[in-house]
Amino acid sequence: MTTIAVLGAGKIGEALLSGLLSGGRSPDELLFTERYEGRAAELTKQYGVRAVDVPTAAVEAEVLVVAVKPQDIDPVLAELAPVVSDRNLVVSLCAGLPTSLYERKLPDSIPVVRVMPNTPMLVGQAMSVISAGKHAKQQHLELVEELLSTVGEVIRVPEAQQDAVTALSGSGPAYFFYLVEAMIDAGILLGIPRNVAEKLIIQSAVGAATMLAETGTHPVILREAVTSPAGTTIMAIRELERHGVRAALLAAIEAARDRSQELGKAHEG
Ligand SMILES: NC(=O)C1=CN([C@@H]2O[C@H](COP(=O)(O)OP(=O)(O)OC[C@H]3O[C@@H](n4cnc5c(N)ncnc54)[C@H](O)[C@@H]3O)[C@@H](O)[C@H]2O)C=CC1
Ligand SMILES: O=C(O)[C@@H]1CCC=N1
């Protein structure tokens, strides 16, 4: 049995705990640390998972998953450094933070794996992208893959691509939620009741996502199949092009990539 401790049980830490439990892990195999006592008590009540301190986590758990905001990493590394040992694997979910930061602040040879997950982990549909640090071996990557495959899809990339990955799939769900929100507003503009507009747009999103995932057909082909000559869809597409929506997406994702790089640079030694 591999015990996993989540250090920082906020949105993504809770999604991981909840996803691992739904994926069949027992609460006894999970631990977490959380700086807010009320939040810790709430999570223990809801999931039956024990809140501990960092030294206890390092002794009782083999896998230590860091899930605090990148800006909060320094105290966590300071607490971990004296207690972590080579029986631990450190897994970082933090946007922007390179494995070299952990390698510099923790004792020699501690294996580190960097992961960019996303919140659909809550429903077993995460996209988790993993990269090995200097001391992480094949067996460590395989262990992380095994853990995360219970809560969604997992792929490996070289660490140099992680800032771009963060902008694409880490933040990706937010862009889809934003689009859905805007399309529901369009329904309101056209006089459709909100509950009906929500149903129409959410089911269209689910249907479109299922077609993309299940048919393997290129999105251009799927979009063309909806776009009839002189029909309704092409009128909408012309407006999207006129308003530069494609260029806006390219610029938005580039800005997110740049921010991920900046978060890493803020911790350069
Ligand atoms: N929210 C998202 O969609 C995604 C977040 N991430 C990454 O996951 C990490 C966590 O993000 P969120 O869950 O959104 O943030 P959050 O703010 O919801 O959660 C962070 C949690 O860590 C706790 N915390 C902070 N310092 C602590 C300490 N020293 N000891 C114990 N607990 C401590 C906070 O009280 C909070 O509950 C970030 O580094 C973020 O970049 C990665 C992918 C997606
Ligand atoms: O916005 C953020 O910084 C985090 C990282 C990826 C998704 N949310």
UniProtKB/TrEMBL annotation:
EC number: 1.5.1.2
Keyword Oxidoreductase applies: yes
This protein's UniProt keywords: Amino-acid biosynthesis, Cytoplasm, NADP, Oxidoreductase, Proline biosynthesis
Record domain Pyrroline-5-carboxylate reductase dimerisation: where: 159-263
Recorded GO MF terms: pyrroline-5-carboxylate reductase activity
Signal sequence residues: none
Binding residues annotated for NADP(+), in chain numbering: A67, V68, K69, P70
Gene Ontology CC: one annotated term: cytoplasm
Domain Pyrroline-5-carboxylate reductase catalytic N-terminal: start-end pairs: 3-96
Record's catalysed reaction(s): L-proline + NAD(+) = (S)-1-pyrroline-5-carboxylate + NADH + 2 H(+); L-proline + NADP(+) = (S)-1-pyrroline-5-carboxylate + NADPH + 2 H(+)
Gene3D superfamilies, per the entry: NAD(P)-binding Rossmann-like Domain, ProC C-terminal domain-like
Gene Ontology BP, a term: L-proline biosynthetic process
Pathway it works in: Amino-acid biosynthesis; L-proline biosynthesis; L-proline from L-glutamate 5-semialdehyde: step 1/1
Subcellular location: Cytoplasm
Pfam families, per the entry: F420_oxidored, P5CR_dimer
Role of this protein: Catalyzes the reduction of 1-pyrroline-5-carboxylate (PCA) to L-proline.
Record NCBIfam families: proC
Family: Belongs to the pyrroline-5-carboxylate reductase family.
Entry protein name: Pyrroline-5-carboxylate reductase
Lineage: Bacteria, Bacillati, Actinomycetota, Actinomycetes, Pseudonocardiales
Gene symbol of the encoding locus: proC
